[in-house]
Design brief:
Length: about 575
């Protein structure tokens, strides 16, 4: 084939390739930096302010502000060098990934270069959106725990390298549970949004504000000392105090917050350790009466030297820490089971496991007393592992269906997933007997990790339940993105449903949606026969509550019989 014919075939192939890629521009140029071939006219019209033609200077394809730098890359390509860069068009701010290099077919005397311009604007926008979702809280738009911990780690690295300083504030809204329980979760979400806006207004642009989950916020204050951190914390406490929660019984409820301050500087602390210090200080602020801030101090030295209320509070926590450790070592935890009843038959089909701790005199201590201590001092992984071990052992021995609650801090714990997998394999238990309950509050702490954790349980064959469904902002989103098998209707909609048309409509809507998606439903807080009958008529699959059975030690709960709520329509 003659050389001219081969060249024509090659050019035709290049043009055909470029024409099939509508988001790309292909430019062949010669040693004089003139255009020898140009394809992708549709994209060029968007990229360039004027007409571009073959034979003209390749510099006409470039904005004047960046022309010389890019032409240097073109010249280097003619000598055999390849390079890539991102180009942002000044005309419309679209982004292009540009690759420049030599083109086969040139000669030493007449080298050719090839520049491929790829419009990556939409792809990058999607990537940034996904990154934003992974790093931010969906309700407030603030950064989430994952991103905040990364920011703290970065600041700690600056402290170690350059001697920087700063502080981390942990903000917890006082009595927030009261808002949810009395005014409803919708009011709780609205309050969280108002608080986020108030905190934004008070902080500097250089400060980093995050929502860690639930009613907990955190702030990273770069370049402040203790006095500065105290000043900021006081201003936040005072500002939040002025925000109304809403009215109930004619009384205006006000917001107060407790803030823990952890100072950072050169040292070897991790972000997790700094947050633990701030958490302990916040606990001190609550013990001192709430609506105030406290600075973290080394607990050992405070216990030795202190005689006031703060030192007494520390000693109390240390005592509870010892009791939790002792309970782990001496197997002094107890699992109670609350019956889960199939409403169509009245049969007890499963039990939700509830953790208790035995005191020295044999009394049972509820989890709200000891679990916060376990979480604050890093014992919760051991506690959750104990619960998993007991649940799997019991399920394997009795073919019993059990629902298991895990701490929010366990979601995303790869070690716990591995532990669950090994225990299932060793026991031979049918994994479908095990249902793990995940609440929205737990998931929002770290959505990405929670999804991976949930998928891991699903892959093992375990069932997943979305607890407190309808209680928060993201329930439907979690139902879409997590492999849940059932939804537990939040007790707020169940406890008063016999007298609330709105609650009944919510229950009906959840049942219809769950049925369409092939998921079962469970109603919490079923407190009387009338409620149970209403739930059964609405098509709710299962229910639990004091009317159907109170929590009892697990062996007894397994044998407990519950009277039928489906005997007859008039029963």
């Amino acid at each position: 084939m003659p050389q001219s014919q081969a060249t024509a075939h090659r050019d035709a192939a290049h043009r055909a390739i470029a024409a099939s890629l509508p988001d790309m521009v292909l430019v062949v140029f010669d040693a004089d930096l003139n255009v020898r071939m140009l394809e992708g006219a549709g994209l060029l019209n968007a990229l360039l302010p004027g007409a571009v033609y073959e034979g003209g200077p390749v510099g006409d394809l470039l904005d004047p502000t960046s022309r010389e730098d890019i032409l240097e890359r073109y010249r280097a390509a003619l000598t055999g060098r390849r390079s890539g860069f991102v180009y942002v068009a000044h005309r419309d701010a679209r982004e292009y990934q540009v690759t420049v290099g030599p083109l086969d077919g040139g000669t030493p005397d007449e080298p050719l270069g090839l520049a491929v311009w790829h419009d990556v604007t939409d792809r990058n926008a999607v990537h940034r959106r996904l990154q934003h979702l992974a790093d931010h809280d969906p309700l407030t738009g603030l950064v989430n725990r994952r991103r905040f911990e990364q920011e703290v780690e970065h600041h700690l690295a600056l402290c170690r390298r350059y001697g920087d300083r700063g502080a981390v504030l942990l903000i917890d809204i006082d009595h927030f549970k009261y808002v949810n329980d009395t005014l409803g979760h919708g009011a709780g979400d609205e309050l969280i949004t108002q608080i986020a806006d108030a905190l934004r207004r008070r902080l500097r642009e250089s400060d980093i504000l995050a929502r860690l989950g639930g009613d907990e916020f955190a702030v990273l204050l770069p370049q402040v000392d203790e006095a500065g951190a105290r000043t900021v914390a006081r201003s936040l406490v005072e500002d939040l105090r002025g925000h109304a929660r809403g009215k109930r019984d004619g009384r205006l409820r006000r917001v107060t917050a407790s803030i823990g301050i952890a100072l950072v500087g050169p040292g070897d602390l991790s972000a997790d350790e700094v947050l633990t210090q701030a958490d302990l200080a916040m606990y001190d602020a609550k013990e001192a009466g709430r609506d105030q801030a406290a600075v973290y101090r080394d607990e050992a030295s405070e216990v030795r030297a202190g005689t006031g209320a703060e030192a007494a509070g520390i000693r109390t926590r240390v005592r509870w820490l010892d009791r939790v450790q002792q309970a782990l070592e001496e197997d002094r935890f107890v699992l109670h089971g609350q019956p889960i009843v199939e409403l169509a038959t009245g049969a007890t089909v499963a039990h939700e496991l509830l953790l208790r701790m035995e005191g020295d005199d044999g009394q049972l201590i509820p989890p709200n007393v000891f679990l916060p201590v376990a979480e604050r001092f890093g014992l919760i992984p051991a506690v959750d592992a104990w619960v998993v071990d007991q649940a799997i052992t019991h399920a394997a021995a009795n073919a019993a269906r059990l629902s298991i609650n895990l701490s929010a801090k366990s979601l995303g714990d790869d070690a716990l997933i591995g532990h669950i997998a090994s225990r299932i394999a060793a026991s031979g238990v049918d994994p479908t007997l095990l249902t793990f309950e995940i609440t929205e509050t737990a998931a929002v702490t770290n959505i990405a990790s929670a999804r991976i954790f949930a998928q891991g349980l699903h892959d093992l064959g375990c069932r997943l339940s979305l607890d407190d469904f309808g209680a928060g902002f993201g329930s439907f989103s979690y139902l879409k993105h997590f492999p849940f098998d059932e939804v537990k209707i939040d007790g707020e909609f169940v406890s008063g449903c016999t007298s609330s048309a709105f609650d009944q409509m919510v229950i009906d809507a959840v049942v219809r949606m769950a049925t369409t998606l092939g998921k079962t439903t469970v109603a919490e807080f079923t407190g009387d026969r009338e409620t149970a009958e209403l739930l059964r008529a609405a098509g709710v699959t299962y229910a639990q509550g004091f009317y159907l059975g109170r929590p009892a030690p697990l062996p007894g709960a397994q044998r407990q019989q519950v009277s039928s709520v489906a005997a007859s329509p008039s029963a």
